[in-house]
Amino acid sequence: MNPIVTISGGGIIGNYISSRLNNNNIESLIIEKSASILPAAENIRTLTLNPYSKKLLDDLGIDIKYAEIKKINVFDGEGSGRIDFSSEEIRSDNLSYVCYFNDLQSELKKGEKERTLFKTEIKNFKENDSNNTCNILLSGSEEINSQFIAGCDGRNSNVAKLSLLKPITSVYEQTAITFTAKCNLGDLNSAYQIFSERGIFAIMPLPPSSEELTHTIVWSVDHKRIKGNNIEDFVKKNISYFERKLNAEINIHSNILSFNLSNHHFENYISGSLVLIGDAAHSIHPLAGQGINLGFADADAFCEEIIKAYQSKINFDKNLVLKKYEIRRKDMNLLMLKSMDFFVDLFRSDNLYIRLLRNIGLSSVNKTNFIKRFFINHASGNNKI
Length: 385
Ligand SMILES: Cc1cc2nc3c(=O)[nH]c(=O)nc-3n(C[C@H](O)[C@H](O)[C@H](O)COP(=O)(O)OP(=O)(O)OC[C@H]3O[C@@H](n4cnc5c(N)ncnc54)[C@H](O)[C@@H]3O)c2cc1C
Hints:
Structural class: alpha+beta
Largest sheet: 9 strands, mixed
Bound molecules: flavin-adenine dinucleotide
Helix content: 25-40%
Distance between the termini: 34 Å
CATH class of the largest domain: Alpha Beta
CATH topology of the largest domain: FAD/NAD(P)-binding domain
Number of domains: 2
């Protein structure tokens, strides 16, 4: 068992990479710390996929249910600024797709089960210069050799810690709250995002289900706003503000999940045979639902470079293959991360002048078609390097 690529972490990104490489006859092995069968979890978390990520999944034959978003309406809850995006503006069928996190993860895992070692972790690894591979020590004391280690083990990546790579981390002092709901918003292909003092509130359609649930909510709130309340009380006290803004009733259906928000980014994604991909390399504020999309764009670039190298049938320089991946992805990810931070700070400010500027800014961009098209194309994954 000496796979060409050993993948640390069998989440969505790790399983996607394994499946794509094996479809191209490149052997992989996933090392996943959790068990193969997990207790059934309530379907609460959702993911917003851009058209490019959805295409990558379609190409692998992943068949799950999606809700289609054709319009996104963004507005400032405290002012008059608004901006609307529609799929017609980029002559596309949809702007994005919503799926359940569990549906996508379990569908991808199903195909890769026999290529996964569960309840296992990488304990250590060292470069073997004599044959240009890497010796990997697993938690069961087993040793394997691989050409590459793909670090797909999420935001506290174990393999990043074992390497000398150092992350730059910052905290937002915010919590992301998410739940599903029944809501009487008329148009089931529209998403809404409200920036307000009570947080950044996004409401998006859900894929069809037997329970006839209609929407998923992702709501980021400053810690100082929640102080003294538990999350459920905070949601119950403040949801009516958004019901008024949307002119709709929102009936909470699921349990309420919450996550502390922070971001991180590595200055380098590669070290020897190791390469960081997806949340292992970077994490981002969920306000634009871009986290997994950046991960899919990373995974796509990594797979393309590896497949190209192996299909060329000539000796290739391993470091150059990984360097190409890093060049393609690092600056794009950093740009998205910095843009999200800019929006978080802009809408957090109570300063009257900044509020005025952001209202004028939003409405001006709304009237400027080429800037809007740039934003939409960027978010849809169409601006690929
Ligand atoms: C509230 C919220 C809402 C979000 N909404 C969106 C959205 O709408 N759209 C979007 O694009 N993104 C969204 N995201 C971000 C998205 O969920 C992540 O970007 C994505 O899940 C990252 O996938 P991943 O496979 O890289 O990492 P993970 O999902 O973290 O998977 C890591 C895997 O590695 C395993 N692992 C961990 N440590 C080890 C170890 N030591 N050894 C072996 N295995 C290990 C874990 O068990 C797991 O299986 C959201 C995030 C939050 C918090």
